[in-house]
Amino acid sequence: MSKPVRTRFAPSPTGFLHVGNVRAALFPWLIAKQANGQLILRIEDTDQAREVEGAIEIMKETLSWIGISWDEGPDIGGPVGPYTQSERKESYLAWAQKLIDKGRAYADPYTPEELEALRDKAKAEKKPFLFRDYRPDNPPTWDGTQPLRFKSEPKAYQWHDEVMGDLSAGPEAVDDFIIIKSDGFPTYNFAHVVDDYEMSITHVTRGLEYISSQPKYLNLYEALEIPVPILVHMPHVMGTDGKKKLSKRDGAKSLLQYRDEGFLPEAMLNFLASLGWNDGTEQEIFTREELFEKFRLDRIQKAGARFDEQRLLWMNGHWIRQLTLDDLYARSKTFWQAEANNYDDDYKKQVLALIQERLKFFAEIPELTSFFFKDLPVNMELIDGNKQLKKLSHEELKALLEQAKATIEQSDFSASDLTDRLNQLLETTGQKPGILFSLIRIASTQAPFSPTLADTLSVLGRETTLRRIEATLASL
């Protein structure tokens, strides 16, 4: 492009941001970053009844956590502010007056009841309701107390969308629509066209649900005599069943909830980018820098992308395994159970090193590591319910565990020495690892799962390991 690329993310402050909302911010950010352009944050708060207190700060916190930055916005200003629609009413009224002066806007005199009667009339006549078929012959002078409608000039349109390709629609898709509501605030249909022009937005990115309204917008662009920006209608992020758009009412979680559960921003950014986009290869893991380099509009898919939380868990686990132990420990500090406060950093790092390979998100840490910090009560169900151990009687298990205890007592408790002694014990007893090692693991941890046995015993140490084995022997 000959002029600088400028994109925008324009959320309404109606609550938290979920995966679909933030993906709507990610793509325009990547478009801008790749072209050394700017991303503008604009708050579309013209629907005052739906505004949620504190929502704007939550939005900014969410974007900042995932690493999406903006170059202009309500908090940092910029040359084309204000960046909050409720503070731009004078601009909308000025553009609305231009339409009135050109005969392209009129006051809507109908009450809601009268409008509903017109809809019923169209239904009875078995034809689609188009407001332009019922325009008032002599509309009153607009005084700001009535809705102001755009007076369309129906025609067929052909246009290009960067994702959906070449599109067209007949004149039936163009209708009169409200541009200023009776409360004095503009509608989205009007405000975003004005804002995008005044803010020099080059790429208009929005959800696929708006594509059916594009002919109306094209009619409005012509009436306002302003150029049409590059259009980018993005595929929906679908729910887990892939049947309908992901939404809050269907249980979509706040992105900050994932943060509070211990998901990494790098993983979430990677995951969101993969919802509806790929670089044409089998690559699934992308750093921020790789996304800046490889993102292309023509690689955005047309079909909706299903939200798969299991894939997010896999991806987050991958990113966790890339962290150095010190970085992992620093990021996970707030997720440890209270008992861990009784142990020093070095011990907790040893524990963390054992679970890093299987850790999917930080909130799992207490469940995976509780036995490293406190003695859990002996749970005979872990033994009696084990498909291998239940083949042996308690007397046989007790004899086997006593033999194991005698072998472990002789170890220096380094992982390598414990490994050698446990392997020798396998040969001596002739038992399967699924029996011998499961018995020792349950006796020393009272947990259904644990990291590698020798490493676990080494970190637990001699005193704790032998004390717990004694407790299990007593129960047997």
Explain what this protein looks like in three dimensions.
The N and C termini lie far apart (about 75 Å). Strands 3-4-7 form a three-stranded antiparallel β-sheet. It has a two-stranded parallel sheet with strand order 1-2. Strands 5-6 form a two-stranded antiparallel sheet. The model has no long low-confidence stretch (mean pLDDT about 95). By secondary structure, it is mainly alpha-helical. Helix 15 packs across helix 16. Helix content is about 45%, strand content about 10%. The chain has 19 helices and eleven strands.
Determine the strand fraction and express it as a percent band: 5-15%
- Broad CATH class of the largest domain: Alpha Beta
**How would you characterize the largest beta sheet?**
3 strands, antiparallel
Radius of gyration: 32 Å
Contiguous low-pLDDT stretches (5 residues minimum) are none
Q: State mean pLDDT (0 to 100 scale).
A: 95
Which sequence of SSEs, written as H and E, runs from N to C? EHEHHEHEEEEHEHEEHHHEHHHHHHHHHH
Q: Strand order across the biggest sheet? A: 3-4-7
For the record, the CATH architecture of the largest domain stands as 3-Layer(aba) Sandwich
How many domains make up the 3D coordinates?
A: 3
Enumerate how many helices there are, as a single number. Answer: 19
CATH topology of the largest domain: Rossmann fold
End-to-end distance: 77 Å
Shape: elongated
Could you say which structural class the secondary elements and strand pairing correspond to? Answer: mainly alpha
Quick one: CATH superfamily of the largest domain? HUPs
Number of strands: 11
Helix share bin:
40-55%
